[in-house]
From TrEMBL:
It comes from the Bacteria. One of its GO terms (molecular function) is DNA binding. The keyword Transcription applies. The keyword Glycosyltransferase does not apply. One of its GO terms (biological process) is negative regulation of DNA-templated transcription. InterPro entries: GAF-like_dom_sf, HrcA, HrcA_C, WH-like_DNA-bd_sf, WH_DNA-bd_sf, WHTH_transcript_rep_HrcA_IDD. Belongs to the HrcA family. Pfam families: HrcA. This is Heat-inducible transcription repressor HrcA. It comes from Crocosphaera subtropica (strain ATCC 51142 / BH68).
Length: 369
């Protein structure tokens, strides 16, 4: 993984702080037990006193990297602490990346496998090697594409965006007209219609034939100078278009490994288990956008996307981390590979596992075609 840190850790932590934070995160991931200064002195060669480590743990807690589940306990990583660890202090285990590629190659070589069967097996292999919930979506080889868009005024301050896809599905979205187009004089209605007609032509020239996955790659910052005053309005339209297209996608998702991950101590509370199972079984439409739609900014910075704990927008995912990566047909992303596990996840292994699985599936699609 080529990670772009969310911030420069050296500006926040000196070398000792980094080493103690790394050891604390690693020990907690391995044991699920809060980590104290005595444990770190005993098991790690820091060459400093227990008092020094205790003082450092206190500073890390004050800075928000660690917290105490209760007063007499040691510390455990916060979501922010995990984020700093993953982005700055962790070394991915490339042996695991090679291992899953070997397993996939050995078990999916049979020519009798169609791609859907291969995805099912890949999901099982990924779950077994990681110990977490593996998710792989079937490829969207023919996603809904935009065929026609038209802005129609419905009042002096609102317009209706009419959307037609290549399957001739239609959808209307009501949007607020930008202030620069609003006129109090009703006689200016013809002028407004003409301006919306010009904007409609521009939208069609930019968006016709594009799918949801391709919309993520559009850059309205480089908009034509003639339309620069409408940049914010166009960005808002794009977000609403993406929301519409998300709801129109029918994507199958393979899931494996639920029983294994529910044995983790983080899922000892029945309510958390029920929420996660309900999400996986009944609300996949809410989960799909989290693993399918990776922002362009994140694609530029790393091969995988990682949402840790409270970074997840869904409440049922807050005790979890979600790692995902897209696999491609050519250069177009058509599906995603993901892992769900507790925030106390072995990130060194899981990140390269997801990345390598996505790479393998991209290669497999290329060989089919």
């Amino acid at each position: 993984m080529t990670a772009q840190p969310i911030m420069n850790v050296t500006t926040l932590l000196n070398q000792r702080h980094q080493d103690i934070l790394r050891a604390t995160v690693q020990h907690y991931i391995a044991t699920a037990e809060p980590v104290g200064s005595k444990t770190l002195v005993k098991e790690y060669d820091f060459m400093v006193s227990s008092a020094t480590i205790r003082n450092t743990l206190g500073k890390l807690e004050k800075a928000g990297f660690l917290y105490q589940p209760h007063t007499s306990a040691g510390r455990i990583p916060s979501d922010f602490g995990y984020r700093i660890y993953v982005d700055n202090l962790m070394t991915p285990n490339q042996k695991r990346a090679k291992q899953i590629k070997q397993n996939l190659s050995q078990q999916l070589q049979q020519k009798t496998y169609n791609f859907e069967t291969a995805l099912q097996r890949a999901t099982q292999i990924l779950a077994n090697l990681s110990g977490y919930i593996a998710l792989i979506t079937l490829p969207q080889t023919s996603p809904n594409q935009l065929r026609h868009l038209q802005l129609i005024p419905v009042s002096s301050k609102q317009a209706m965006l009419l959307v037609v896809t290549d399957s001739y599905q239609t959808q209307s979205i009501v949007v607020d007209i930008p202030a620069s187009l609003v006129r109090d004089n009703e006689e200016e209605q013809d002028w407004l219609e003409e301006e919306l007609h010009i904007l409609s032509n521009f939208l069609n020239s930019q968006l016709k034939g594009k799918s949801l996955l391709e919309l993520n790659h559009l850059d309205w910052e480089k908009i034509d100078q003639d339309f620069i005053n409408y940049a914010d309005f166009l960005k808002s339209l794009l977000k609403q278009l993406q929301t519409y297209l998300k709801t129109s996608i029918s994507t199958q998702m393979m899931i494996h490994g639920v029983s294994e991950v529910l044995r983790q101590p983080e899922f000892s509370q029945l309510q958390q288990v029920q929420m996660l199972l309900h999400l996986l079984e009944e609300e996949q439409d809410k989960l799909l956008p989290l693993i399918l739609n990776i922002p362009e900014s994140e694609l530029c910075n790393r091969r995988v996307t990682l949402k840790i704990g409270t970074e997840n927008p869904l409440e049922s995912m807050r005790p979890c981390s979600l790692i995902s990566a897209t696999y491609c047909q050519g250069h177009i992303p058509v599906g995603s590979v993901g892992l769900i596990g507790p925030t106390r996840m072995l990130y060194e292994n899981t990140i390269p596992l997801v990345e390598s699985t996505a790479d393998y599936l991209s290669e497999a699609l290329a060989s089919i075609n």
